[in-house]
Specification:
Radius of gyration of chain B: 13 Å
Structural class of chain A: mainly beta
Oligomer: heterodimer
Distance between the termini of chain B: 33 Å
Largest sheet of chain B: 7 strands, mixed
Number of helices of chain A: 0
Shape of chain A: globular
Helix content of chain B: under 10%
Number of strands of chain A: 11
Strand content of chain B: over 45%
Radius of gyration of chain A: 13 Å
Order of helices and strands of chain A: EEEEEEEEEEE
Strand content of chain A: over 45%
Chain lengths: 109, 114
């Protein structure tokens, strides 16, 4: 079967750096997405990786290793507003998005 | 209006009721999606429409019936639901189901089946 694994919950301190890992086993690979979802709100797109390496976008970066079936989302200079769930999703060979259950990130002052 | 809108935002219905969820996208996208989101579970893809044609139906029970009259509108008709169908129902749209196009989500309909 297809599977996306990410930690259920993480805690970090305001101003620090946090890395959220995602491992996947899917039938085919057509890209990996990270979304942010604040409580009670819709998921919003953060990043897309289809080739190995690091994609940087301001305070957020996303890394992909296709050979390892592994990605991480790196958040720098954490702010209280970064408290949210972070969803990892992979497009499989049928171009369907397979979703992880999300990582709830708690930021403490 | 911009983005993806959904109505109603909240819905409480009995198991014998019939109701419909509505989604509208103002982004000029060709593909629209229905997802179910339950607490602490991954998003479950229910239906995909591309250029008004249904391209995916992920073994969804027949008590959920989608309708896509045009590329901007998507409905989910509900009848004789079960309490386990209580969840957040999210609509999304994208330029194309394939490739690296991200999906844009609406705010969701919080459904409670009593």
């Amino acid at each position: 079967g297809q599977n996306i694994d990410q930690p259920t919950e993480m805690t970090a301190t305001e101003g620090a750096i946090v890395q959220i890992n995602c491992t996947y086993q899917t039938s085919g690979f057509n890209g990996l997405f990270w979304y942010q979802q604040h409580a009670g709100e819709a998921p919003t797109f953060l990043s897309y990786n289809v080739l190995d390496g690091l994609e940087e976008k301001g305070r957020f970066s996303s890394f992909l290793s296709r050979s390892k079936g592994y990605s991480y989302l790196l958040l720098k200079e954490l702010q209280m507003k970064d408290s949210a769930s972070y969803l990892c999703a992979v497009k499989d060979s049928n171009y369907q998005l397979i979703w992880g259950a999300g990582t709830k990130l708690i930021i403490k002052p | 209006e911009t983005g993806v809108t959904q109505t109603p935002r909240h819905l409480v219905m009995g198991m014998t009721n019939k109701k419909s969820l509505k989604c509208e996208q103002h982004l000029g996208h060709n593909a629209m999606y229905w997802y179910k989101q339950s607490a602490k579970k991954p998003l479950e893809l229910m239906f995909v429409y591309n250029f008004k044609e249904q391209t995916e139906n992920n073994s969804v029970p027949s008590r959920f019936s989608p309708e896509c009259p045009n590329s901007s509108h998507l409905f989910l008709h509900l009848h004789t639901l079960q309490p386990e169908d209580s969840a957040l129902y999210l609509c999304a749209s994208s330029q194309d189901p394939s490739g690296g196009y991200e999906q844009y989500f609406g705010p969701g309909t919080r459904l409670t089946v009593t």
